[in-house]
Backbone:
């Protein structure tokens, strides 16, 4: 198994280049095509026309955003100029969530970033990362806003509750987990503990072992969503993991996304890259 096309979300935030470095590492390891997909903040223009000199403001704002996008494009192209990988640059116009979702459904894997409130250029759109995870239909590897993430997959924790989302995440992550050392963290939230169709952790372990991974199982009692999320993070720290794999839970209508508690905890508090699938 491998990833034929990896998309990496680029903007003019500081952490954009950490995401690119990770995407290049993964694309090199899997001989994947790499697409740098630029999407930055775009203001809602409807209400701006109520302002005086709105047209001038919009023209100046557009010029600033285009200049920043061009600077990112040039740096991306310089980084990729050695020709070691097949690559492509794309940029979306208008609503960044709509544009990125339309493009990224082509991807085998999306590399994106945790929202960084400390970076003034880190905001793309409300619930941008959440929309990628819940609406793209593709696995999303989220890079933390803090710390260094230089390698993923050699040592990982897989969060397993035996459900559909966990199974999909594990299957999507197998190219990263093959040949590695993996701890299967088996726990359910209190609301899921009675589900009858949950596959046991031994199923996850067998899948991993068939990919040449060394798998162990850690059982944790059921608990509240936030408690389970904190236990997963603690397990990853104790295990020395450089990757967490988990199913993402949530739903939404009209771009108002409601995340499950474990998913929300992880997206807010991740300390290592997290691969999520929904």
Residues:
């Amino acid at each position: 198994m491998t990833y034929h096309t990896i998309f990496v979300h680029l903007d003019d935030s500081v952490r954009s280049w950490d995401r690119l470095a990770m995407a290049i590492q993964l694309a090199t390891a899997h001989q994947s095509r790499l697409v740098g997909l630029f999407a930055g903040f775009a203001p809602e223009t409807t209400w701006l026309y109520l302002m005086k000199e709105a047209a001038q403001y919009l023209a100046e704002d557009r010029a600033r955003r285009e200049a920043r996008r061009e600077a990112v494009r040039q740096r991306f192209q310089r980084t990729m100029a050695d020709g070691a990988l097949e690559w492509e640059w794309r940029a979306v116009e208008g609503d960044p969530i709509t544009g990125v979702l339309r493009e990224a459904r082509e991807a085998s894997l999306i590399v994106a970033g945790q929202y960084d409130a400390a970076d003034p250029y880190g905001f793309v759109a409300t619930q941008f990362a959440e929309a990628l995870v819940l609406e793209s239909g593709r696995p999303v590897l989220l890079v933390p806003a803090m710390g260094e993430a230089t390698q993923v997959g050699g040592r990982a924790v897989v969060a397993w509750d035996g459900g559909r989302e966990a199974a999909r995440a594990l299957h999507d992550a197998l190219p990263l987990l093959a040949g590695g050392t993996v701890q299967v963290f088996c726990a359910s939230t209190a609301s899921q503990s009675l589900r009858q169709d949950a596959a046991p952790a031994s199923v996850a372990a067998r899948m991993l072992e068939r990919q040449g991974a060394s798998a162990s199982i850690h059982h944790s009692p059921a608990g509240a969503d936030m408690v389970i999320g904190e236990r997963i993070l603690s397990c990853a720290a104790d295990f020395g993991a450089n990757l967490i794999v988990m199913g993402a839970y949530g739903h939404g209508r009209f771009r108002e996304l409601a995340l499950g508690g474990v998913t929300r905890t992880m997206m807010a508090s991740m300390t290592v890259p997290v691969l999520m699938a929904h």
